[in-house]
Amino acid sequence: MPDINHKTYIKVPLEEVYKTVSTSQGWNAWFTDDTSLEINSDGTGEIRLRWTNFGSDNVNIEDGGKIIEATPNKKFVFQWSPGEQNSTVTFKLESYKDGTLVVLNETGYTNSEKDLRACIGCAVGWGEALTLLKIYLEYGIVYKQDL
């Protein structure tokens, strides 16, 4: 299966982007409803992403797993299981012009039907998620379906 790859430029400092993708408060501000996240002193930990009444079907979703790497202002890597097995999501942050280039990569999908559906959904979903992250950080705008 191919990797999922997205990039977006966000006109805020690295530190602000990193804080948003590496804390439960950050995730809940721009994307999830009740994420819990704990990073240990060695940069590993656990993440549980939660959405309530998500999408047109109003489903409750919970997923997550190990935080593989949390390097302040550089990289945030975690595993989750939207498909048949764990996949690995990497947020890599780079200084760029007056802000931050966010490079997102997800790997680990197999050729199974369940993984294929998950990969397609996540390829679209991560593009949308990075747009939400950008408008949240640059303008303070948050999209919530129940509005």
UniProtKB/TrEMBL annotation:
Task: Show where the Activator of Hsp90 ATPase homologue 1/2-like C-terminal domain sits.
Answer: 11-138
Q: InterPro entries this protein is in?
A: ASHA1/2-like_C, START-like_dom_sf
Q: What family is this?
A: Belongs to the AHA1 family.
UniProt protein name: Activator of Hsp90 ATPase homologue 1/2-like C-terminal domain-containing protein
Query: Organism source for this protein?
Result: Metabacillus indicus
